[in-house]
Amino acid sequence: MRIRRIGIAIVGVALASVSLGAHHSFAMFDMERNVEYSGVITEWKWQNPHVHFNVLVKPAAGIDPKTAGTWDVEGGSINIMSRQGWTRASYKVGDPVRLVGHPMKDGSKGISLFYAIRPDGSRLYHDIARPKDDVKK
Amino acid sequence: MRGSLVVLFTAVQMVGAPLYIHAQSPGAPQPHLEGDWVRVDPDGVNSFDGLSAVVPPAQLLPGVSAAAGRGGGRGRRGAPPTDPSAGPNPEGVPYIVVAQPCAGGGPGRSNGALLVNPDSGGVHFIEQKDEVIFAGERGGVRHIYLDGRVHPNPWTPTPAGHSVGHYDGNTLVAETIGFMPGGVPGGGVRSPQTRLVERFVMSPDGGRLTITYTWDDPKIYQKPHEYRYYFERAPKIESKAGKFSYALEEWCDAGDPIEQQPIVPPKQIIK
Q1: Which of B68-72, B131-135, B182-186, B211-215 has the highest mean pLDDT?
Q2: Which residue of A16, B76, B108, B257 sits 20 to 30 Å from the alpha carbon of B115, by its own alpha carbon?
Q3: Residue B54 to residue B52: CA distance in whole angstroms
Q4: Sequence spans of domains, chain A
């Protein structure tokens, strides 16, 4: 019995502790941090399995200097983002963009998108996750 | 193949009425499970990794260690491809054709296992007389048999196990056993002997779905491990033919290097 239980535990831990992901691990992102970035789209890739776009954040008054630079922003699949209201034409190169995302833990210029903030203040979410201030009960 | 799958889903939707009308009380029409659904976050978990944080911790027996992972979130955490057939597809073969994610499925995700605890990909139910077909746009299909059959014995464990079900009023109740060993959301563990009961409960207006999961195994759990996932009907889109929800495959081809592309920090224009 003991051996069996240990076996189950080992298998369970092994199966659950490895970040496999649909396409790659997301352990590189600090999911506990929500950081706002304001910049301009410099590259727009509406593609599976993950939408990517680059954002240039220029140093300016009111801009957190830590957010300055050119960032690779990663979203979800086209299906998942479409259901949240995104389209291929949501943004194009040259468009201003304001977004909230989870930065890379190692400080490199990568962001896991949480949501974009449209000019009217509404949000385009990457995925089904919501902040506490925007949930439907 | 891509086109045919879309046609399949569309055709199923255009049929409209379910093929099997289950037990109904007289009077008001009852909502049906048939159609497209998407999981929602009614708790405000703040990131897709947080979707697992709302699952209560499993109460395991002494000697059974908790699974360290936090399975059940967005779905990006799963199992390593211990099954060789669950590895990446050959170049040029999209994963949906072989019902497994392109980056390796393993017992945690492949062959319908992702539908045991769906992530945020769209899911689709087809209700028929003898079975409910549960399909996901991210690959895999489950069959929940309603024809009174019992679980096969012997049974070779599979990622999604073997499911039988019945309707309890308007609620679909599915019982599944025969899983390959793996993790369970909330730090739980499963073995081929573990029994999962899922109750698919719809809101009176048919717009929301709650799946209650109850994992039970006297060799693993102190008490049944229970938690819930919440879904809404997939949003409809306008077309010349009317308003439809949709289910699209999530195209993924292991031969395409971009499929494996993680974050690539861009060249810095400003210092």
Answers
A1: B211-215
A2: B257
A3: 5
A4: 21-134
pTM value surpassing 0.90: no
- Among B55, B77, B82, pick the best mutation site for testing chain A contact (most A Cβ within 10 A): B77
pLDDT at B60: 96
Report the alpha-carbon distance of residue B141 to residue B8 in Å, rounded. 14
On chain B, the residues whose CB falls within 8 A of the CB of A108 are 263, 265
Report phi then psi at A9, rounded to 5. Answer: -65, -45
Mean pLDDT of chain B: 77
Label each residue of B166-208 as H, E or C.
Answer: EEECCEEEEEEECECCEEECCCEEECCCCEEEEEEEECCCCCE
Band (A23; pLDDT cuts 50, 70, 90): low
Question: Is B269 inside any structural domain?
Answer: no
Interface test with A, best of B45, B47, B74, B252 (most A CBs within 10 A): B47
**pLDDT of B104 over the 60 cut:** no
Residue of A105, A100, A130 whose CA lies nearest to A30: A105
**pLDDT at residue B87, as a whole number:** 54
C-beta atoms of B51 and A128 within 8 A: yes
Q: Which of A30-39, B33-42, B237-246 has the lowest mean pLDDT?
A: B237-246
Q: Which residues of A touch B215 (CB under 8 A)?
A: none
Q: B220 CB contacts (<8 Å, ≥6 apart)?
A: A8, B60, B61, B64, B188, B189, B190, B191, B194
Looking at the structure of chain B, the number of domains it has is 1
Residue B35 maps to a domain: yes
CATH number of the domain that residue B249 is part of: 2.40.128.20
Mean pLDDT across the stretch B80-100? 52
Please name the fold of domain A21-134: OB fold (Dihydrolipoamide Acetyltransferase, E2P) (2.40.50)
Indicate whether B144 belongs to any domain: yes
d(CA B155, CA B178): 7
CB-CB under 8 Å, A109 with B268: yes
Token pair recorded at residue B150: 């019992």
